[in-house]
Amino acid sequence: MTIIDRYAVFGSPISHSKSPRIHTLFAEQTHQALEYTAQEVNAETFIAAVTEFFAQGGKGLNCTVPLKELAYQFATEKTERAKAAKAVNTLKLQSDGSILGDNTDGIGLVNDLTINHGIELKNKRVLILGAGGATRGIITLLLEQKPDCLIVANRTTEKALQLAIEFNHSFEGCGLDTLHDKAFDLIINATSASLSDELPPLPENLLAEKGVCYDLAYSNTPTAFVRWGQEAQGASKSLDGLGMLVEQAAEAFLLWRGVRPDTKTVIALLNAERQG
Ligand code: ATR
What separation in Å is there between the alpha carbon of 110 and the centre of ligand 1? Predict the structure, then answer.
């Protein structure tokens, strides 16, 4: 009897997750035999669920909202990018029984921006909106691209200032209310406002000419932030996070299976599906 390697995504809410579809497409494309499911797990049930998953022979997990910090604590070993983010979205059972924690969100975003959309970050002025877990996951990888400046602006100013201290002032933290008179080549929405179709309060003319807007969230219809980029800021591109989702999944797949799937065909398929 062949035993199929088992993988899963844990999170809450999880029913609309595209991860099982993405990993199943990756597995077909790379001729890997595996099963990938989605399981509703919240902060209270996380430890019991993750312990049982690996005890039952599970090989690897993705962890999404609200579990990334808990997954970081659960991992017995961490990659450098996970340590920098203090958050883990990928767990892997290693041959010695230890659990490796990785964070593939930052590389997923950078790959989508630079490879899929041809957007150079070097010497660009970059603004991140929000100072929560999503921001934490992408800062280090964005800084590696050597932008001219990186600013993290948050509704609660203190949280952005604290994050800047934690990252040794490698970027500037500020409040959303101090952004007037500034213009950026790339504005990344890492707030959770899109989840309720809200827009953070933003000044006009925040985007430089030919600038790009990128929402880490994704939706079947354009998010409030994507619409703001298109309609109010005249962005050359106003993108949501579907590409990043597929790219972070590909990095997790690579970590687990040692082979990197082709992401372009999967992104094209998911884009076609959501356009109906
Ligand atoms: P995540 O893990 O998704 O980043 P989080 O850690 O709860 O979630 O952080 C949510 C972020 O979205 C915070 O930066 C939050 O701002 P505050 O720190 O001021 O709460 C931001 N946010 C959520 N809703 C927002 C809104 N309507 N306008 C502006 N910022 C918002």
Answer: 21
| Six token digits for residue 226 | 């994507």
d(CA 122, CA 39): 39
Owning domain of residue 30? 5-103+243-275
**CA-nearest residue, atom 29 of ligand 1:** 200
Question: What confidence tier does 275 reach under pLDDT thresholds 50, 70, 90?
Answer: confident
Closest atom of ligand 1 relative to the 198 alpha carbon: 27
Ligand 1 mutation pick, 109, 192, 197, 216, max ligand atoms within 8 A of CB: 192
* Residue 218, token pair as written in the block: 């994704």
Task: Return the closest-CA partner of residue 122 out of 136, 100, 143, 137.
Answer: 143
Q: What is the mean pLDDT of residues 91-117?
A: 98
> What residue's CA is closest to ligand 1, atom 2?
133
Q: What would the mean pLDDT of 185-213 be, rounded to a whole number?
A: 95
CATH number for the domain that contains residue 263: 3.40.50.10860
What is the tally of structural domains in the chain?
2
Give per-residue pLDDT as tens, 248-270.
Answer: 999 999 999 999 999 999 999 99
Where are any strands of DSSP class E within 83-160?
90-93, 99-102, 125-129, 149-154
Do 29 and 126 belong together in one domain? Answer: no
Is 18 a residue of the active site? no
Ligand 1, atom 8: closest residue by C-alpha: 132
